[in-house]
């Protein structure tokens, strides 16, 4: 019985070795499984697809989103106007005082 | 195609965009499309902007030098938005641009981001009225009591002004991300496809659309495939196709039923089960599907190949072209750096005899169908002298590397050509690298 078992295992190993020689794809798969042993068996499965359906980072709420956008903008434009800071507390702001919601439109470099 | 004696010799014509290597994300080109005459060339970018180039009237004195494309109009098509219900950002990146056939003096195009499609009107203004009776030239109103005589205002020429205005906004019809739009040959309707659904719109009506395909399973745990691209047949207004992440294409006939969940034809190449690997499904995912101009064939692009299908034969493609087969032994690292998920597009030439698609290292590939010839060309600033003929490139897969060859390990996988377009009639091609647009033309007129 054990002899038969050993014989079968050798055949499987042989098939695997043959696969690596014949198919570079299978060799790559073996490489991947060696690096990530916890990788699921079904690569095209629903987890993978569902991640695809929801691309992009999820924010906690719109405040979180606007903060993240502001941080990005500050990185690009370090000189933010400071006179607007006086508005809070001293007087009732009017629509003209509030900063524009739309970002300034930078022309595409293709259109130069 | 490459070298003397070949049918086509490609020459550098123009390059648009910044030279510096520091690429701002907004400048990444996300779509390229010629209009139906080839006179206009539109690009969309990740920053939501559209730039339209116009071909100048040909210079008859220099027959070998075809006309150039210069900036005609540019506008901000989409802006970033925030989906308050899902707390997710809606990118302003332009996923696709599709031109409408020209009906009057103005040009119309559809541009879409992940959620909203817009119809833009691009019109020219080259005259302005002058000589109003009640208004001064600067716009101030005149006191009617001071007017003693009447005159007829006249139209005087002015510098050409090209204006783009949004005429329709088609929103709130897609829960998932729009990957395709396609104008119907009936010139009245168009389809928009997201990961799980396809909707049919009337170009005039923005508050309603018909759902024609819905592959969302009742239980999302059972999700096995998504829609990757969709297109209307160029001649039959009742027919469209959509491709999937599993490598299949379904052809649907809208006359059969209102909801086209059941396909009329299913195109799928049988796979040898013993060849199946972890990567099989991922690399079989179709990133683009395009009908031939004559409507008899369709072309699909998966990660490693381009396939041409005869619409009358569902069980296998009639032609298969390997784009970069040498990557098959690099799939592990391509999976790790996410390149295996890159979505390459493909396109036909005007008479459906040649197909083109992009690759890495700013290489792009052309396949001449009848001649069984193919070429690898490169879009780079080093080959950008006016009318410089592009030298064919070769990737060395193993063994001794010849002088001009480049080895697979030296390829720059950050330099990808995902978007290419071919002029509808002439041999002029537009190739988009990350942030530059190259225009090449065939040497022989």
Automatic annotation (TrEMBL), chain A:
Keyword Protein transport set for record: no
GO biological process per UniProt: cell division
Localization annotation: Cytoplasm
InterPro entries: Endosulphine
Skewed-composition ranges (Basic and acidic residues): 9-27
Keywords: Cell cycle, Cell division, Cytoplasm, Mitosis, Phosphoprotein, Protein phosphatase inhibitor
Chief location: cytoplasm
Function description: Protein phosphatase inhibitor that specifically inhibits protein phosphatase 2A (PP2A) during mitosis.
Family statement: Belongs to the endosulfine family.
Protein name: cAMP-regulated phosphoprotein 19a
TrEMBL record, chain B:
Gene3D superfamilies registered for this protein in UniProt: YVTN repeat-like/Quinoprotein amine dehydrogenase (2.130.10.10)
GO cellular component, one term: protein phosphatase type 2A complex
GO terms for biological process, alphabetical: blood vessel lumenization
GO molecular function: protein phosphatase regulator activity
Protein origin, superkingdom: Eukaryota
Keyword Cytoplasm annotated: no
Keyword entries, A-Z: Repeat, WD repeat
Sequence similarity: Belongs to the phosphatase 2A regulatory subunit B family.
Quaternary context: PP2A consists of a common heterodimeric core enzyme, composed of a 36 kDa catalytic subunit (subunit C) and a 65 kDa constant regulatory subunit (PR65 or subunit A), that associates with a variety of regulatory subunits.
PANTHER family documented for this protein: PROTEIN PHOSPHATASE PP2A REGULATORY SUBUNIT B
Protein name: Serine/threonine-protein phosphatase 2A 55 kDa regulatory subunit B
């Amino acid at each position: 019985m054990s002899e038969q078992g050993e014989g079968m295992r050798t055949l499987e190993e042989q098939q695997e070795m043959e696969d690596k020689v014949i198919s570079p794809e299978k060799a790559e798969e073996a490489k991947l499984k060696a690096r990530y042993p916890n990788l699921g068996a079904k690569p095209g499965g629903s987890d993978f697809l569902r991640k695809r359906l929801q691309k992009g980072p999820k924010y906690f709420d719109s405040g979180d989103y606007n903060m993240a956008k502001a941080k990005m903008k500050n990185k690009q434009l370090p000189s933010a106007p400071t006179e607007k800071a006086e508005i809070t507390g001293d007087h009732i702001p009017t629509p003209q005082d509030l900063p524009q919601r739309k970002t300034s439109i930078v022309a595409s470099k293709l259109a130069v | 195609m490459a070298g003397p004696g070949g049918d086509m010799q490609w020459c550098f014509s123009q390059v648009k965009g910044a030279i510096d290597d520091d690429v701002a994300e907004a400048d990444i080109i996300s779509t390229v499309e010629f209009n139906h005459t080839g006179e206009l060339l539109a690009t969309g970018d990740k920053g939501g902007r559209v730039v339209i180039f116009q071909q100048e009237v040909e210079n008859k004195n220099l027959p070998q030098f075809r006309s150039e494309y210069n900036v005609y109009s540019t506008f901000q098509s989409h802006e970033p938005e925030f989906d308050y219900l899902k707390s997710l950002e809606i990118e302003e990146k332009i996923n696709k641009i599709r031109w409408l056939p020209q009906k009057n003096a103005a040009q119309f195009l559809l541009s879409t981001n992940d959620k909203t499609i817009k119809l833009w009107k691009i019109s020219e203004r080259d005259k302005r009225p002058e000589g109003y009776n009640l208004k001064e030239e600067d716009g101030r109103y005149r006191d009617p009591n001071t007017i003693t005589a009447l005159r007829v205002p006249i139209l005087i020429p002015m510098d050409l002004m090209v204006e783009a205005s949004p005429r329709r906004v088609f929103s709130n019809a897609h829960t998932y991300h729009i990957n395709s739009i396609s104008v119907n040959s009936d010139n009245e309707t168009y389809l928009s496809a997201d990961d799980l659904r396809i909707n049919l719109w009337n170009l005039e009506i923005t508050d309603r659309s018909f759902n024609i395909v819905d592959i969302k399973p009742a239980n999302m745990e059972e999700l096995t495939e998504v829609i990757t691209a969709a297109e209307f047949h160029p001649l039959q207004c009742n027919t469209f196709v959509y491709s999937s992440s599993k490598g299949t294409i379904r052809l649907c006939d809208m006359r059969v039923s209102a909801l086209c969940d059941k396909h009329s034809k299913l195109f799928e190449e049988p796979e040898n089960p013993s060849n199946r690997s972890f990567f099989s499904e991922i690399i079989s995912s179709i990133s683009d599907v395009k009908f031939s101009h004559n409507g008899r064939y369709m072309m699909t692009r998966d990660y490693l190949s381009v396939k041409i299908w005869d619409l009358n034969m569902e069980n296998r493609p009639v032609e298969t072209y390997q784009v970069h087969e040498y990557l098959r032994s690099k799939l592990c690292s391509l999976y790790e750096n996410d390149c295996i998920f890159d979505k390459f597009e493909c396109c036909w030439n005007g008479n459906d005899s040649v197909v083109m698609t992009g690759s890495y290292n700013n290489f792009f590939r052309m396949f001449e169908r009848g001649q069984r010839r193919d070429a690898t060309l490169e879009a780079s600033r080093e080959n950008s002298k006016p009318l410089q003929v592009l030298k064919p490139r070769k990737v060395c897969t193993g063994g001794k590397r010849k002088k001009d060859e480049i080895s697979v390990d030296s390829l720059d996988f950050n330099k990808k050509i995902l978007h290419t377009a071919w002029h509808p009639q002439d041999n002029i091609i537009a190739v988009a690298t990350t942030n530059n647009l190259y225009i090449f033309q065939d040497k022989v007129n």
